[in-house]
Design brief:
This is Fe2OG dioxygenase domain-containing protein. Pfam families: 2OG-FeII_Oxy, DIOX_N. This protein is an alpha+beta fold. The strands form 5 sheets. Strands 3-4-12-9-14-7-6-5 form an 8-stranded mixed beta sheet. It has a 4-stranded antiparallel beta sheet with strand order 8-13-10-11, with no helix packed on it. The protein is globular. The N and C termini lie far apart (47 Å). Bound molecules: N-oxalylglycine (OGA) and nickel (II) ion. The site of nickel (II) ion (NI) has 4 residues, from loops. The site of nickel (II) ion has 4 residues, from loops.
């Protein structure tokens, strides 16, 4: 059940019921925030807590950078051209789209249907899967640590899909009835696509594929399903504040036509125009560290629409919890000379604890800044 809170003089709206801020050592755990879907439904006034005055000062690129590269995954096995394109996409953009990725269209369509169905349920039903005070999983919002923090115009459902034996099924909705099976299948298919990309990346990086893949064996995969209601003041809020993903690799799908993802390039925001059926892939901070900075994790944000709701799913692919997050030793030898590491080493467990307990604050505000040597 949700309790009510008065936001900015508007009608009372329910808040996600959480009790406490995280204590040191916990992985995630955030302050309670209003449910944005309800907020959007009861009042057209947008509380000051969502307004980002800095948005007015920021520049959106007028097409000078073009679009992020499009990689045809079916060509990665057969020739060097597509591999070279992938390598430069990872180095120059940190973001690209993949087509012919091998994930069947019906897997994505079914996921889209079930996610949409879930967010259309009553608040009471969705709150059965609400986040707890101790973690990121469940229905709610992440990365809120202070009452003064500007909030994002969006709700999410977050689940950890792997390791399978650690799944917390209490956060896996039973409604729609097919949802659990759909999530399971979607996660497995995306993991396959992610591993296939990692193999191609290791060829480009000239490291043995097994060495990179082994880091990700029995790794962590999470799905973050985002629901951004329409907002009367869409140009002044964000759906997800500027951040770089603290993950290995992210594969993003948008579920409906509303646009919103923007990538930071040379100080400007480049709007991404997703191709139908494509995944938008980005290098996360962990992969930047593993590649000793050869591949870049790039700042991005999600905007919302003034008329239409927007839905997206991010699939985060992380290494095994027991590995060290550090530049791969093979990459520290180039042309038979030893290269200096550009990042420190940290256990994945500690990395997670720290990065999940920091608010989203661009790339420079992220934990990776503290990892740089
Ligand atoms: C994210 C993210 C962008 C979007 O969930 O990490 O960047 O378009 N989402 O929803
Ligand atoms: Ni992101």
């Amino acid at each position: 059940m949700a309790e009510n809170i008065n936001v900015g003089g508007c009608l009372p709206v329910p808040i996600f019921q959480q009790q406490l801020a995280p204590t040191a050592g916990e992985v995630g755990g955030y302050l309670p925030v209003p449910n944005v879907q309800e907020l959007a439904a009861v009042s057209k006034d947008v509380s000051a807590r969502y307004i980002r005055p800095e948005r007015e000062l920021e520049q959106v690129a007028a097409g000078e950078f073009g679009q992020i590269p499009v990689i045809d995954m079916s060509k990665l096995q057969v020739g060097d051209d597509e591999l070279a394109k992938l390598h430069s996409a990872c180095k120059e953009w940190g973001f690209f789209q993949v087509i012919n990725h091998g994930v069947a269209e019906q897997v994505i369509t079914k996921m889209a249907e079930d996610v949409q169905h879930f967010f259309s349920l009553s608040l009471e039903e969705k709150m059965e899967y609400a986040q707890l005070s101790t973690g990121i999983e469940g229905y709610g919002q992440a990365f809120v640590f202070s009452e003064k923090q500007t909030l994002d115009w969006g709700d999410m459902l977050y689940i950890n899909a792997t390791p399978v034996h650690e799944r917390k099924m209490r956060f896996w909705p039973r409604n729609p009835s097919s949802f659990r099976a759909t999530l399971d299948q979607y996660a497995a298919e995306l993991e396959k696509a992610a591993r296939s990309l990692l193999i191609s990346m290791s060829r480009n990086l000239e490291v043995e594929p097994e060495k990179l893949l082994n880091l990700f064996n029995d790794g962590e995969q999470s799905l973050r399903m985002n629901y951004y209601p329409p907002c009367e003041q869409a140009s002044k809020v964000t759906g997800v504040a500027p951040h770089a993903d603290g993950t290995g690799l992210t594969l993003l799908t948008r579920l409906n036509q509303a646009q919103g993802l923007q990538v930071r390039k040379e100080g400007k925001w480049v709007p991404i125009d997703p191709l139908p059926g494509a995944f938008i892939v980005n290098i996360g901070d962990i992969l930047e560290i593993i590649t000793n900075g050869e591949y870049k994790s790039i700042e991005h944000r999600a905007l919302v629409n003034d008329r239409n709701e927007r839905l997206s799913i991010a699939s985060f692919h992380d290494p095994n919890m027991d590995v060290m997050i550090e530049p791969m030793s093979d990459l520290l030898v180039k042309d038979q000379k030893k290269q200096a590491p550009n990042y420190k080493s940290i256990s994945h467990r500690d990395y997670k604890k720290i990065s999940r307990n920091m608010k989203l604050d661009g790339k420079d505000g992220g934990f990776i800044t503290h990892m740089k040597i």
